[in-house]
Amino acid sequence: MTGGVRPPSPERSAEVRRRFAEEARSERPDLATLCLLLGAEADGALDEAGLDAAQVELDRLAGELPFRPGSPRAWAVALRDLLGGRYGFHGVAADYQRLESSLLHEVLRRRRGLPILLSVVWLEVARRAGAPVYGVALPGHFVVGLGAEFGPAEERVLVDPFDGGRVLAGDDAETLVAGATGAGLRPSMLEPAAPLEVVARVLNNIRAWAAGRPEESAVGLWAIDLALLLPAHAARLRYERARLLVRRGEFSVGAGELEAYAEVVGAVDGEVAEEVRGEARAARAMLN
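-> structure tokens emitted (288 positions)
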């Protein structure tokens, strides 16, 4: 359920989207800023003071870490003791049913969230404290790495913020991947995730959450709209957006977007383009 989360005004939404696009296209996109702007698109109550307060809270938490703990494992233990221990940041299965679990300002308030948003808290607190930290986008379960991103594997440590910052050992990462996908762990899965990749995955999660809840189609729509503002995105998102508009009863606009997508895809797959045009005709027929 969205609970108390209500959308912003059209004017506020336009400003948030402008800033989101600007940040996403900057030379060094800031992960916390992007996640908080995403939250402002979801929650009209998140004003400028709220955005600032969330950044201040991340700064405050970083200030409570010991000064330069030392090795990657020492950093991992310090983060676990502070965030998972003293402040109780963690996740439970029920968090997957809440939109708030994907919104950074709400995760900071509730100290609960999805693995990827809890990982954002770990990443941002650790980064502010000077730790060598990066995100690791394991399939189905995001975690955090500590140590030089491209250094020797044996000198890097993985932690699971969803489990309160538990330090992963042995085949723990393989177990997480197997539990989520049934597949094995490949070395490429351990590569650092860039900020825009993290944000895209957060938006994917929100789209998936909304897709199973027809009454939340507006949430799915803004999640697609923000994903389209990222410098790199799948062209098929435009098809997804057009179909969502049709499902929301916006038949004319949706049909127009389906036709525009058909023109694009027609250059590589005429058969698919004709199928999409058929969907557009069906949408327009709903207007009669």
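The radius of gyration is 20 Å.
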